[in-house]
Amino acid sequence: MVEYLKRLSSLKKLCKEKKFDSYLLSTMDEYLNEYAPVNKQRLKWLTGFSGSNGLLLLFNDSFIFFTDGRYTLQAISELPSSIKIYDTSKYTIFDFFNDNQSKKTKLCVDSKIHSISFIKKLIEVTQKKEIKIHFNAGILIDHIYRFNSIQPSKHDFLLSNKYTGCSAKKKINLIRNKIKNLYCYIITSPESVSWLLNLRGYDLDFTPVVMSRMIFFNPKKIVLYIDKNKLTKKLNIFFNNLGISISSEEQIHKDLKKIEKNKKILIDKDSPYYFYHEI
What we know:
This protein is of the alpha/beta class. Helices cover 33% and strands 21% of the residues. The radius of gyration is 20 Å and the shape is globular.
């Protein structure tokens, strides 16, 4: 427990150095997975909480923790006793901000690990208070501890159409017909990409989704953003036959900056806010 108290103290110190009064950290990773890979479990490293749903708020030098009913007893057991714990079925972070009037507060929010819908609600609530949100394009806690990437040990694979019920080609054509009047369609969810391409892998324990994203650029360009080391020659040929170009996971951030302004773009409301903010 002493180790976690030191880490929390380091976070407070970092926030003061950056001139942030408050900071928000979720259990989710950059893909907004509830069950994040081991090397992306930032909240667990910081606090010791090992559940899959938690939200830690540093607010005016105090820590407040929000989780659902599955984890309230676990949170009491695992978190330092100085952290106030709330069950989100009874009291949410939005309730907290509504109830707590404070001096002018600068709140740092990592835009890559919170959804568009969550941030929009957060903006709506904090606008009523003297709380200014700073959207951090990186992830603040990574200044304290560098979370190393894990090299893939196995290649991704395709599911047969007899198990999926529909080919990737047919699904892609259906999407193209739906978005023909749009400039582009951004898919940030690994579950959606895995379903669309009938693709499975080993990025998460017990969940065969593949960490990846896609952008459909009209009229025909499609880009899959994925760790190329996970792809076999067979998969590369498969994607090429579908007219899909392969780029690294990081390339999507550069491609976002190339998207023309004032164009019709489709993106899911539960995508990371970072994507919405960038376009």
